[in-house]
Amino acid sequence: MNRFDFFYQLGLKYPLFQGGMAWIADSSLAAAVSNAGGLGIIAAGTAPPQYVREQIRQVKQLTDKPFGVNIMLLNEFTDQIADLVCEEGVKVVTTGAGSPGKYIKKWKENGITVIPVVPSVAMARRMEKEGVDAVIAEGGESGGHVGELTTMALVPQVVDAVKIPVIAAGGIADGRGIAAALMLGASGVQLGTRFLVAKECTVHRNYKERVLKAKDTDTVVTGRPTGHPVRILKNKLARKFLDLERNCAPLEEYETLGVGALRRAVQEGDIEYGSVMAGQIAGLVKEEKSCREIIEELFAQTMDCLRRARDLETDLYPDLADKGQEVGQ
Ligand code: TUI
């Protein structure tokens, strides 16, 4: 067993998942990622069950490769979607924004590989005990709903705490990030922001352009007082959210401001008053490419980094390297 076997057993060419971005990760994006050798994921987000079912049926038409469904546990239809993935024969389910505890048994009985996002060691341990197959350790650099810890701090602590595979997410958009995640002990990675600007991503053109022109400091976390902090690109909506925080506004006002905001940005292209979710790594994302080009470039860069890491060893300890040569190692 090597640490990538988990992904090969799922039928993937690369240890890479595409993030389940609500209203964005549809059958078009998921099929393109799966066809390129990663795991494409359809996001249920806050959508009704019928939408999710349609997307699942469409993705089956577009690829014969494995794909997954991400279930966002704050969705009011979660119970129905949890059943629907069993009915539709989905092979992999990832979850976000809560604990999938009560669904795990049924999913496992239906042969589903269950992989929750965990924001802490405690949650990772709990999920392992409840029988999940792997965890996604997602740092707060990521876009959308975020935890407190950074990827750099979270991943190695989760790796030490559990025996199941750990997939790193948050702040990764190129091969350097992937190589770093592997160095932290992760078995694979999940990327969202990089795929926002994939050719096959159907998000509104304005959203893509906004991500392409983002710089490092352009994201901000909003909605902390609600207990559901969300990282978005700075715009008029973000400023309004921050005003609410400054004025200690009642929680209902966040709700009013947030309702439909993501959909407004994704579908209507309203990038001023809509919620433009993206991770801190958006500043690194400069080119629209196909999913295949993105994924092949990512792993070419990763291999390059890993080869350079070998050179670093001798750069760091030249004496040891000389000694190694002397004894013919
Ligand atoms: O879920 C995400 N990212 C998301 S979901 C989303 S849709 C949305 N829209 C409006 C408001 C809120 C969400 C947009 N982006 N990432 C995975 C993730 N899960 N990040 C953090 C967590 C998490 C947090 C707490 C997972 C489990 C958890 O457990 C708490 C507990 O103990 O139950």
Describe the fold and architecture.
The chain has 329 residues and is α/β, with parallel strands linked by helices. It has two domains: 192 residues, TIM Barrel, CATH 3.20.20; 77 residues, no CATH class. Helices cover 46% and strands 14% of the residues. The strands form two sheets. An eight-stranded parallel beta sheet has the order 1-9-8-6-5-4-3-2. It has a three-stranded antiparallel beta sheet with strand order 7-11-10. Strand 10 and strand 11 form a beta hairpin. The radius of gyration is 20 Å and the shape is globular. The mean pLDDT is 96. The site of ligand TUI has 20 residues, from strand 7.
In short:
The protein is an alpha/beta fold. The chain contains 15 helices and 11 strands. It folds into 2 domains: 10-201, TIM Barrel; 205-281, no CATH class.
CATH superfamily heading of the largest domain: Aldolase class I
Mean pLDDT, rounded to whole units?
A: 96
Please tell me how large the radius of gyration is: 20 Å
Shape: globular
Q: How is the biggest beta sheet arranged? A: 8 strands, parallel
Second CATH tier, the architecture of the largest domain: Alpha-Beta Barrel
Strand order of the largest sheet: 1-9-8-6-5-4-3-2
Strand content: 5-15%
Write the layout of secondary structure elements.
Elements: H1 5-9, E1 16-18, H2 27-35, E2 40-43, H3 49-62, E3 67-72, H4 78-87, E4 92-96, H5 101-109, E5 113-118, H6 121-129, E6 135-138, E7 144-145, H7 151-161, E8 166-169, H8 175-183, E9 188-191, H9 193-196, H10 205-212, E10 219-222, E11 230-233, H11 236-246, H12 251-258, H13 261-268, H14 291-316, H15 318-326
Helix pairs in contact: 2-3, 8-14, 14-15
Bound molecules: ligand TUI.
